[in-house]
Design a protein that fits this description.
It is a single chain. With about 250 residues, this protein is α/β, with parallel strands linked by helices. The chain is about 40% helix and about 20% strand. The chain contains ten helices and eleven strands. The protein has a seven-stranded parallel sheet. The chain has a four-stranded mixed sheet with strand order 1-4-2-3. Helix 6 packs parallel to helix 7 (about 140-145) and helix 6 packs parallel to helix 10 (about 230-245). It starts with a strand and ends with a helix.
């Protein structure tokens, strides 16, 4: 199976982390600025062949802003085969796991942004349901700016069941909802923890909510009642980092 990756950051990350996955690399023929030159040098050092093509050819492959770089890539087996059991085993070797779960996030832009924040905050894995969830497509990879290649994304059949398995493995599950009584900053996130973010609008599903040990909300001081899910995810994850590194 193959997919598309585009944009300088996304392709640069692939070249550094998994050059063997790049089946074809296309670069705009009339782009020779420093960023492109650095990418070309990296591709050459990694043994990845380059095809220089007109911008119009790249436009036919990608409808969004590609920055003159498009790669055809092989989908990593970990993106399609990592199971719930694999996840629990993987986290067993981590001293104090930090996991992000996304319930019903269907916009690939939001998925990519959440992956980027997860990577920046040292999240060990991102869990999403197989159904009613955005695909890790070219758009998500572009927004993730390389994070899609750096952090495990685990798709599970039943999110509530996976949360229970993680609880049984010693993690605490903290869900986010505007109806919660506890403010995020009052919740202890130093524990081994799964932070669950729901979809914009409907939020977490009932079974997901029932699987949570704690429910928290973000304090909203203005007229806006909620934040974009990727922004809220960043706030929650960086609060976890702040608590874990304080003192």
């Amino acid at each position: 199976m193959s997919d598309i990756a585009f944009g300088i950051h996304a392709v640069d990350s692939l070249l550094r982390r998994s050059p063997q996955r790049i089946l074809s690399l296309f670069v705009q023929i009339d782009r020779n600025d420093k960023r492109i030159q650095a990418l070309l040098a990296l591709a050459k050092n990694q043994g990845v062949s380059i095809t220089r093509v007109p911008k119009a050819d790249l436009d036919t492959k990608v409808s969004e802003r590609h920055q003159g770089v498009v790669a055809v890539i092989e989908i990593a087996s970990s993106e399609v085969n990592l199971s719930e059991r694999d996840l629990v085993s993987y986290l067993s070797g981590v001293e104090r796991p930090l996991v992000l779960a996304l319930d019903g996030v269907t916009d690939p832009h939001n998925l990519g942004a959440c992956l980027r924040s997860a990577d920046a905050t040292g999240v060990h894995a991102v869990v999403v349901p197989k159904d009613n969830s955005a695909e890790l497509n070219a758009t998500a990879r572009k927004v993730a700016s390389g994070a899609a290649e750096a952090i495990p994304l685990v798709r599970v059949t039943n999110l509530a069941r996976t949360l229970k398995a993680l609880k049984d493995a010693g993690l605490w599950v903290v869900g986010t909802t505007g109806e919660a009584e506890t403010v995020l900053y009052d919740q202890d996130l130093r524990l081994p923890v799964v932070i669950v973010m729901g979809a914009e609008g409907p939020g977490m599903r009932r079974l997901t909510t029932d699987a949570c040990d704690f429910l928290v909300k973000l304090p909203m001081a203005g007229d806006v009642s909620s934040l974009n899910v990727s922004v809220a995810t960043g706030v929650c994850l960086f609060e976890a980092v702040r608590q874990r590194t304080a003192g």
